[in-house]
Amino acid sequence: MTAAASPVAAQEQPLRDLTERFAAARAGYDAAALEATLAPDYEEISPVGTVDKRAEVIGFYTADKKAPVPPMTADEWAGAARGDVAVVTLRQSLALPGGQTRALRVRHLARREAGKWKLVSTQYTPIPPARP
C-alpha cells in the first residue's frame, strides 16, 4: 500500500518546482523560461541592494550574455502558501574557485495566477562566512 502525499507536501511541490525552474532559467541564461516564471510586476533585490524590475532581470539573462556560472546548491527550503500567495525561503550556496563557498539567503514571494504560480519578488541577502 502506498502512502498518500500529505496536504502540506502537495501544497509545497508546485512552489519547489517554481523555485527550481527559476534557478535553472538563471543558470542557463534562458530568458524565455524566466518570462514564463516571473509575474508581470516582478522585482528583485540583489545581494548588493539594487532593485531590478522584471525587464531588467530578463535582459540580464539573455543567451548573448551567457557567462560561466559557479556550481550552486539550494537547501534549508521552507515554503507556505496562504490562498493565492506564498513565501519561500531557502539558502543558496555557490562554489567558488579555490574551494571557497558563498551563501545567500533567498526569499521569494509567489502569486498564483490562472492556476499557475509565478514569482512576484525575490530578495538575496548574503550570509557572512563563518569566522575562524
From TrEMBL:
InterPro entries attached to this UniProt entry: DUF4440 (IPR027843), NTF2-like_dom_sf (IPR032710)
Protein name: DUF4440 domain-containing protein
Every DUF4440 domain range: 15-119
